Amino acid sequence: MTETLLPSWPNAYPETGAHGWLKLENADFRVDEIPQEIPTGEGEHVWLHIEKDGANTAWIAGRLAEFAGVRDMDVGYAGMKDRNAITRQWFSLYLPRVQEPDFSSLNNEEMTVLSQTRHARKLRRGDLLGNRFTLVVRKVEGDRALLEANLEAIKEHGVPNYFGEQRFGYGGGNIESGRAMLAGDLRVRNRNKKSIYLSAVRSLVFNDVLAERIRLGLWGKTLAGDLLDDTGAVTGPLWGRGRLTSTEGALALETSIAQQHADLCDGMEHAGLNQERRALSAKPDGMRWEWHDNDDGTVDLTLTFSLAAGYYATSLIRELMQVDEPERRSFDEPSPDSAES
Question: What pLDDT, on a 0 to 100 scale, did the predictor assign at position 5?
């Protein structure tokens, strides 16, 4: 079991006391990217649809750049995906006025090029509608009736839109690195690492706002002064420069949490982040589940659902049960809001 320094954020639904194992195999965690657009077949950028198995997104991007003889910055992708999983996502490479190589020659156990075509523009962070997940939780122990009740509630009302542990690094280490960086105790030259650390402390503040609302019995409810997004979901702050745009009770709650993290909020403002908003709830689409009673007496649960870009599947799982994973120090940062996940 991985030790974590992260706060114990509350759940929205009753604790089931159940336990299971996630990612015992890469195939237990499958993710399919839902792109914003499909390549047209013409343009200066080569788009590759790639399935990866046990590899991280940055490593795939580097391998593509080296093979094509282009700079790392000429490779684009919409978001990072988990290493310990089987995932399908799009990559783009800037290759104008040249005959592109056959990228399928790179196929191996870790990556497979599913299609290769061209498009008019580069794929950038956040350029996706969402992700489809198929997850298998193995060796589930617990009251199935309680789990079914939470499954039905999640399908109907969604889950708290917490940033998942991936955002915070192994044991929450990205938070401490971000705190040290903003305090001037840690000098970070790498732009990607700087972005990861800023995202971690920003996400900590958001999660704490969401957690406080749940503690106050406000899950699924609006508070005077709340701001809604285009879908009608209540939003919380992603900290940065500028005034909070919430008012009344919502402003008071958000301000109280910001004051608890005054050093981090001040640092994020000076780092150039701007105030943004994020939905406090995540509603899964097409959610289905199936129980498997195995011959050895164990029980597996398969979950299928889609989430919007930047939302974490682990935030859904935590409302069902505690899960453990095989010990791996390989958190990959999905970075969905840096445009996730």
Answer: 73
The answer to whether 145 and 22 are in contact (CB under 8 A) is no
Instruction: From 115, 135, 107, 98, select the one nearest 47 (Cα to Cα).
Output: 115
**pLDDT above 50 (res 71):** yes
- Rounded to a whole number of angstroms, the distance between the first and last alpha carbons of the chain is 23
Q: How many CB atoms lie within 10 A of CB 27?
A: 12
Tell me the catalytic residues.
82
Amino acid at 269: E
Residue 308: phi, psi to the nearest 5? -65, 160
What are the tens digits of pLDDT across the range 248-273? 999 999 999 999 999 999 999 999 99
Say which residue the tokens 């903003």 belong to. 182
Q: Per the confidence metrics, is the pTM higher than 0.85?
A: yes
Q: Within 13 Å and on the Cβ side, how many CA atoms surround 14? A: 10
Three state DSSP letters for the chain: CCCCCCCCCCCCCCCCCCEEEECCCHHHEEEEEEECCCCCCCCCEEEEEEEEECCCHHHHHHHHHHHHCCCHHHEEECCCCCCCCEEEEEEEEECCCCCCCCHHHHCCCCEEEEEEEEECCCCCCCCEEEEEEEEEEEEEECCHHHHHHHHHHHHHHCEECCCCHHHHCHHHHHHHHHHHHHCCCCCCCCHHHHHHHHHHHHHHHHHHHHHHHHHCCCCCCCCCCCCECCCCCEEEEECCECCCCCCHHHHHHHHHHHHHCHHHHHHHHHCCCECEEEECEECCEEEEEEEEECCCCCEEEEEEEEEECCCCHHHHHCCCCEEECCCCCCCCCCCCCCCCC
